[in-house]
Structure formats: C-alpha cells, structure tokens
Protein 1
Amino acid sequence: MNFQTGISLKPYNTFGLDTRAKLLVEVTDLEMLKRVLKSKEAKENPILLLGGGSNVLLCKDFDGLVIINQIEGLEVISKTDQHVVIEILSGSVWHDTVLHCVQQNWGGIENMSLIPGSVGAAPMQNIGAYGVELKDVFISLKALNLTTLELEEFDHSACKFAYRESVFKRSLKGAYFIHSITIQLTVGEHKTNTSYGDIENTLKEMNINPQDASIKDISLAVIQIRQSKLPDPKVLGNSGSFFKNPIIEEDRFKALKARFPDIKGYPVPTGVKVPAGWLIESLGWKGKRVGNTGSHAKQALVLVNYGEAKGSEIKSLAMEIISSVAATYQIDLTPEVNIIE
Ligand code: EPU
C-alpha cells in the first residue's frame, strides 16, 4: 500500500481546488481497500473517500486519509432477448459506462450521458438528467460496511432514492463504501425518453424525428446539449449543478406566480419544482464573477472556479446566492454538492 503524504487534491476534484491531503492512497480492488481500512493510517485519521470527485467542495486541506477509488470493471450478470443485467464496479467512470452501453445498444442510461464522476457516486445522489434518474434502471448495490468490513447488499427500496437523494446521503452518511451497482437495461426494442424539451429540439436540429431516435442519437443529443451549456471541468472547474431545484407547495407557487409572473415551475408529485437556475438568473447572478469564482454564463446553477479559487470562496458565493434567493422569493436553496469543511 502506497500512502502518499501532502498530496494536492487538484486532480481528484472537478472543481480543481488545490487543497492538500495529509495522506492519500489509491485502491484498485476490494481486498486492497480492506487492507487500507485496517491500517494504522486509517485507524488514526479521519477518512475521505473520493471517486470522481465530481460532487465535493473541499473548503480546506484535509487533515486525514483520502482514499481514491479506482476499483473498475463491468460484468454481464444475465441477458435475455429483452433485458441485460449488469454489475459495474464503483470506481468506473460513469460516462465511459454509458458509452459502453450505448455501443452495445443497451437502453436506459443514454439520457445520463456525460454526467461527470464515477459509478459509485451515482446512487449516492441518485444522479439524473433529461427525464431519467438512476433509480429508473437500478436493481441493487453492494456496499462495504466501514465498521464490520462486510459487503452488504441494498435493494432498490433500501436505498430510499428521491430527487438527488439516497439513504447514503442521510442516515447512512459515511457508514458505507459503495463497491458496485447492478442495473437493468433494455436489449433490442427500446422506448427512448425524449420528453425533455431540450432533447426534442436538439434531435430536430440533428434532423432526427424524436419518435425514431435511437439510443445513440439520444446520447449524442445529450452530449451536445451538455457541451453547449455546462462547462467542461477540465477547462473550467465546476461540479455541475451546485444547488438542487427546490420543490415548494402548489399554493406557495401560485402566490409567487402572482408576484413574479415569469417564474417557472414544473408539477411533481410532491408540489412544484422551481428551476433554481431561473431564480438565480432573475437576481442577476448569471455570468457574474466574484473574485476567482462565479455563476456560469450559460447555466446560472453551475458555480465555477476561474482557476485560483479557494473552496471557501465558492462556499461564500453559494451562501450569498442562498441569502439573495431567500430574501426575494422566501425559498431556501439546498446545495447538491457535498461541502467538506
Ligand atoms: N434556467 C434559467 N436560467 C439558467 C438555467 C436554467 O432560467 O441559467 C431555467 C430555464 O427555465 C430552464 C430550466 O431552468 O428551462 C431548466 O434548466 P436546465 O434544463 O438547464 O436544467 P436544470 O433544472 O438547471 C437539472 C439538473 C441537471 C440536469 C438538467 C437536465 C438539478 C439540480 N440539475 O438542471 O443536473 O443535467 O436538469 O436534466 O436537478 C447536476 O445535477 O449536476 C446536473 C447538471
């Protein structure tokens, strides 16, 4: 086991924040991870598990042990004429997994093309995009209990998925290491999901009738949409949407609509989902730069690092945005990103 000291975490977080870890180790299989967890270094230090680092805001140096998950692989568990069940190891890159499935013509995750991060992060916050969420294809996952070092299986209901939520962000936070996920995809006949307006428009621009779109077409359309409005973390550090889209009661939405006729909202079973991007843009934050950070010019919900930002600066901007949205709309924005202080 190669414990490195004083390593910069810049390559390990998509915000590109140059914080340091007292100790860092990369693990490539489960047995190695168990050995690391039993080590003196792990017992004597706080631990931070990182996959793709696409959903963390590191506010300062981490005075502990950072474990980088590089446990990768994909296995077909079963296959019929209609479905394929695959198990993917958590350190695999999510987008590479999507491309592999699209290539095989396996349907179900093409709308989630180009989401940054690793497979292990996907169930943590039930990733989603363009009308599809991980929970729609999810069967189960295996996770290592960090106390007993036993692998446990969680079925769909045990994960308590909701919008950008799971049990691993709530009551079981920090208690498990997600080792693999098992999902079911379609084979052959596939009902594509083109319900999200942006997808339909982009397909039309590509001269494809949304009804005839193949899995590959959808993936290409999603990649095009994301590249047109979401900054590439390799170029401009970011972590995708910084905030969740708030869900408010219908009556409150109606009252807001009376005062702010342009406000947008989409009905969901628990109320009305208000695009946080709209709220933030309406208050003049979109494209505004504050020191080394700011709200992205093409997507207000995305906070970016212009190069030299500190995590604490990005957090301060996030807090200012939260206050300004609360002051005008009486809506509390919640960060989607895991803030590590
Ligand atoms: N909007 C604005 N101004 C903006 C951005 C958005 O007014 O600067 C309004 C527009 O009305 C637009 C609506 O918000 O029609 C929705 O915008 P968009 O399609 O860009 O999606 P979003 O709600 O901002 C969510 C997810 C994204 C996901 C997209 C597409 C959350 C927190 N974010 O963003 O996920 O890619 O939908 O499905 O739910 C992520 O989680 O990191 C992420 C990028």
Protein 2
Amino acid sequence: MRNDLDIIFSHFETGTAFLSAEPLGSGHINDTFLIRVMGDHPAGYVLQRINHFVFRDVPGLTENKVRITQHLLGQLEKEGVEELDRRVMQFLPTHKGPYFYCDKQGNYWNLSLYIPDSVVYETVSNPSIAFEGGKAIGAFQRRLSGLNPESLHETIPHFHDVGLRLDKFRKIVEEDPCHRAADAPDEIADILSREAEMRAFMGLVHSGAIPRRVTHNDTKIGNVLFGRNGHALCLIDLDTAMPGTVLSDFGDAIRSGANPGREDDPDLDKVGMDLGIFTAFAEGYLSEALAFLTPTELDHLAFGARLITYEQFLRFLADYLEGDVYYQKIQHEKHNLQRARAQLKLLQSMEKQYSEMCGVVSRLRE
Ligand code: GN1
Ligand code: MG
C-alpha cells in the first residue's frame, strides 16, 4: 500500500515529493492517510480513499467539497479571520485538472492540506470545548447560508430520511436474511415503538416547515478540528456536506460529544447524555445560529438530538440484521449490535432529560 500511496499522491498537483504515509483518524467508511513530504512545508497532506460503494458519485462529491471550501474561504476573508489556511480545508487538484484521482483498481482519492498542531476529540468532558464545537458548527452553517443548497449534489440521496430508513428496516426484519432478528427482539421493538413520532417529524421536513439548508450532515464531534489552545479551527470530513436540516447537525454533535461513553461502549452504565455538555454545546451553537434559525427549527432543536440518535440506533441495528453490509469495519461478529445497544441507551437517556433539554433551548432563545 505504501508504494501505491506514493504513486497516487504523485498524480496530485503539489510540487512536493512523497516521504511517508501513516493511517489517520477513526472513520467507519473511508480510509485516510497522513502523507509527509520532503522538506518542512507544508506539514503534510491528507490522502483519502473515498468509499464509492457508499458515495456513488465521487466527482459530484468532490465538486461539492471544492465549492463549499471555496465559499467558506471567501466568507472567512470577508470577516477578516486570521490564519486562513487553518480555518478551512483546502483540496488540491490532480495534474489533469479534477480534484479527485481514480486509480487502476477503480478507487477514488481526494487530497487536502494537513492542518498541523491540531487535535480532535471523540467525546467531550470540558464545557468550553463543547461551546467551541457548537460555535464551529453554527458558524459553518452561517457562512454557507449564502450558498444555494439546491446547487449542490446529494452525495448520499435521502441520507437522513428516517422514514425511508424505517421502510427498509421493516423489510429487513421481515426477510431476516442472516437469521439475526432473534438476537435483538427488544431492540427491534424499541425501534418500532418510536416509529410514529419519528415519521411525524419527517413530515415537517418533507413539507418544508423545516427548511433545507447547506449542512454538514456528519457532525460527530470528532469532525471538528481544534487548535492546541482549545479553540475550534474548522470542520473536516466534508463528504456529506450537502442539503440537509440544521437539526441533524446539532443532534449529531450532541449524540457523539455529550456521551461520556463510547459510541459502541459495551458498558452501558457509562453511556448517557451529559446535560452540562448539552448546555455548553447549545450555547456555542446558538451564539452563531440564533440569528438565522426559524422558530420551527428552534422548537425542534432539542428533538434533533433524539432524532439523530434514533437514526444511528436504527442504522446500526439494520446493518447488523442485514449482515454488516454498510458498517463493514467491525471488530467482532456482534459489533454493530453492540453499537446499536449503546445508541439505544443514549437515546433513553435523552428521552429522560428531554424537558430539561427543551428548557435550555428556550432560555437561550430569549
Ligand atoms: C460514519 O465514517 P464516519 O465515521 O465519518 C457515517 C456517519 C455516522 C458515523 C457513526 C457516510 O461516519 O453517518 O454517523 O459513521 N458516515 C456515512 O459513527 O455513513
Ligand atoms: Mg464521515
């Protein structure tokens, strides 16, 4: 692989020479490498193999990333933000022009500049990090509010359409292709008991009562890059940046960041939502987003956390029942079921604290 990475890297317009490569990050879908080059500048590059089983239209995905990052750059310049090369991802073109390379095996690759002296957090215990993370997601949406969402490609069609995911789930349970439904009767019932409420919410999205905007759609807190001083720099992992709702961005950061346990924690006693972290995150997010959100979006902000946690529970469980066809990076046979159970526990914790969550948002709206 190392030699291949060298060759793939050489197709991009960098003006530098490959030195070494090492795996980077903990994504479930793509494969990511940090490429070091000869000399001190730049500090390195991020080379990413895009999973084109998941992302069917890599040219469209790449076009989105370039448009979005260029738009963000323009906004940052207008705002007079300093250290611009640390505040937005920068993608590089290939010698032939496109910003992606397709290798001989049919794998697609993107290259971006590595932002040095940066850290990511998979979970957050410090409220000031939560505030900064929320602010970064709000600012991302604010800066992209002038870009027409319909001008972007849908890199995964219907990605956060819980209704369609439920239709598919019902089919999988009925067909039970891997004879795994007997492993999870309670979890299946937990999905179905919340189905009506989730479908009712999707009605607001389909009717336009909740508007479509340019959103990130994968705002796990590990996708916010921080400087070593604790300030957020920018959002990374822009594969799913496309039209969506702000509620899933808000919700996914809470799902991932406000849970002191792991996303797949086998120890369910560790899993739950920390209301203090929720509050700090909402404060940071609304410091940027309050000015442009509609009353209906604000009314449903806290619900966004339940929605996306339910969706993730549904996705992991459906994939376990289907035979790990989507989340293929598993460590053991029941890993996707274990992930599903942790998400269910987190969802239950949010449900218990829902009136407090709504109270926090109401206070911040005043
Ligand atoms: C996947 O690959 P990664 O970790 O960035 C998934 C997200 C899920 C997440 C759960 C394209 O993201 O939607 O929330 O796993 N990305 C895609 O950890 O499906
Ligand atoms: Mg991702």
